[in-house]
Amino acid sequence: MVRSDADGAFAGHRPPVEEGTIRVATASDARALHRLICDLERTEFDYDSFCRRFESQLADASHTCLVFEHEDEVEGMLNLQISSRLHHERPVAEVLECVVGGKARGRRIGARLLRRAREIACEAGCELIEVTSNLARTDAHRFYEREGMARTHLHLTMPL
Length: 160
Prior knowledge:
This protein is α+β, with helices and mostly antiparallel strands. It has helices at about 30-40, 45-60, 110-125, 140-145; strands at about 20-25, 65-70, 75-85, 90-100, 130. A 5-stranded mixed beta sheet has the order 1-2-3-4-5.
């Protein structure tokens, strides 16, 4: 079988929504989030540097990091930033990172995290919610499109 989306659902199969809790991340989640982000990027980030970035985001009201917890284990996360843009009348919510751990995929955890992020964005009066996804992550693209997002922009980058 071939996986059809970032949540790990297979074509024609919609697994049940997983039992668990979505909550705002705390500093005590750093180790689990570091593991998830390293898995997402397929690299090993320096843990101390990661913790400094994470602590900075925890102190910044424009960021909300959500975690999905099941049986006292963090199995997924979504990092959301809400900001003003000159070319939008209202704030914009951006999904900075969204990842579900390998063994937890296929249980609609990503969909639940995205749904909660959308609720937060609506509560904040946002005009839209957006995500940038690496071109190689075609499963993630299908996931976001299945969840109602549309391809509307091209995102360009330049290493510095």
